[in-house]
């Protein structure tokens, strides 16, 4: 499991493009026939993808987390961004259609991923954080979470936000997770940009055409940088870093956070007039 070490704002001014990408961008989230995970020391989050590609995949333990099995001391949120698939957790089978979210709590020993019968192309996105207690497993289908309509077409950020794991939805220790879909003709995922100084947030961009990109803004408001992000690539956004993004086409993204609290609206805006 590759590791990304924690960084601080003072490092940003000296970073060149390749160093920024090596530190904050995860380019190969989904690899057919593999579970590929990355460990970031920002809030000790593990994120990555599982792509069965016709075979069952089992989520085992890893030396980097010093556990006999993956969820011994952790919880995980799973969102399927591919074709219909199944997740089996301690013998219980959950069917995830495209866009469905599954929460698995601490203490579940056996987790495996597969394509659904007669289906191919399931792609499971995993976001995991340490957990101090166990909450029940819960499956949420698309549209069954808390749905919020945000933004305006006049500012190119009309979007539908689906909250799945959050303080008023599926219960967890730390994880807050959901999916946002931009409306046709909208490109900004949020503006003004903002920080969550108490939580790390990770973005997975998807539903992006092959020849399109998202310009993901990061850094401090007085020292911004950007990453060019392709379809199904993920970005680690430390708690001190602002985040916002604009695409060359409409797209969707999974947002997921872990840290001090679970209040979705606990954010500090960075007005565009303050950005440098």
Automatic annotation (TrEMBL):
Q: How is the cofactor bound?
A: Binds 1 zinc ion per subunit.
State if Metal-binding is listed as a keyword. yes
Taxonomically, which superkingdom?
Bacteria
**SUPFAM superfamilies from the UniProt entry:** RmlC-like cupins
Q: Which Gene3D superfamilies match?
A: Jelly Rolls, pectin degrading enzyme 5-keto 4- deoxyuronate isomerase, domain 1
Q: Which cofactor does it need?
A: Zn(2+)
Q: What is its EC number?
A: 5.3.1.17
- Pfam family of this protein, just one? KduI
> Is the keyword Nucleotidyltransferase in the record?
no
UniProt catalytic activity: 5-dehydro-4-deoxy-D-glucuronate = 3-deoxy-D-glycero-2,5-hexodiulosonate
Q: Where does Zn(2+) bind?
A: 194, 196, 201, 243
Keywords assigned = Isomerase, Metal-binding, Zinc
InterPro entries xref list: KduI, KduI/IolB_isomerase, KduI_N, RmlC-like_jellyroll, RmlC_Cupin_sf
Q: What Gene Ontology terms describe what this protein does at the molecular function level?
A: 4-deoxy-L-threo-5-hexosulose-uronate ketol-isomerase activity
List the pathway annotation. Glycan metabolism; pectin degradation; 2-dehydro-3-deoxy-D-gluconate from pectin: step 4/5
Record field: transmembrane = none
Looking at its record, which EC class is this enzyme?
isomerase
Family per similarity comment? Belongs to the KduI family.
HAMAP family, per database record: KduI
Give the protein's function. Answer: Catalyzes the isomerization of 5-dehydro-4-deoxy-D-glucuronate to 3-deoxy-D-glycero-2,5-hexodiulosonate.
**Record-linked PANTHER family:** 4-DEOXY-L-THREO-5-HEXOSULOSE-URONATE KETOL-ISOMERASE (PTHR38461:SF1)
Query: What is this protein's name?
Result: 4-deoxy-L-threo-5-hexosulose-uronate ketol-isomerase
Chain's gene name: kduI
């Amino acid at each position: 499991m590759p590791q990304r070490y924690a960084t601080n704002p003072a490092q940003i001014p000296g970073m060149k493009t390749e160093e920024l990408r090596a530190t904050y961008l995860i380019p190969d989230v989904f690899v057919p026939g593999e579970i590929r995970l990355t460990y970031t020391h920002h809030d000790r989050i593990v994120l990555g993808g599982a792509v069965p590609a016709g075979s069952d995949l089992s989520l085992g333990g890893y030396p980097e987390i010093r556990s006999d099995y993956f969820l011994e001391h952790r919880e995980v949120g799973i969102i399927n961004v591919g074709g219909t698939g199944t997740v089996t957790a301690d013998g219980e089978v959950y069917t995830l259609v495209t866009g469905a979210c599954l929460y698995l709590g601490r203490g579940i020993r056996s987790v495996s991923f597969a394509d659904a019968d007669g289906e191919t192309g399931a792609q499971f996105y995993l976001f995991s954080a340490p957990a101090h207690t166990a909450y029940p497993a819960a499956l949420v289908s698309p549209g069954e979470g808390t749905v919020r309509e945000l933004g305006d077409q006049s500012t190119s950020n009309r979007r539908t936000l689906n909250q799945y794991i959050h303080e008023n939805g599926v219960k967890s220790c730390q994880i807050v997770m959901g999916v946002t879909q931009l409306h046709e003709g909208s490109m900004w995922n949020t503006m003004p940009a903002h920080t969550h100084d108490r939580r790390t947030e990770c973005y997975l961009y998807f539903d992006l055409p092959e020849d399109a990109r998202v310009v993901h803004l990061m850094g401090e408001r007085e020292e911004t940088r950007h990453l060019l992000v392709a379809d199904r690539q993920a970005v680690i956004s430390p708690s001190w870093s602002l985040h916002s993004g604009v695409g060359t086409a409409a797209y969707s993204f999974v947002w997921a956070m872990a840290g001090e609290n679970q209040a979705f609206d606990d954010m500090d805006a960075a007005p565009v007039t303050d950005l440098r």
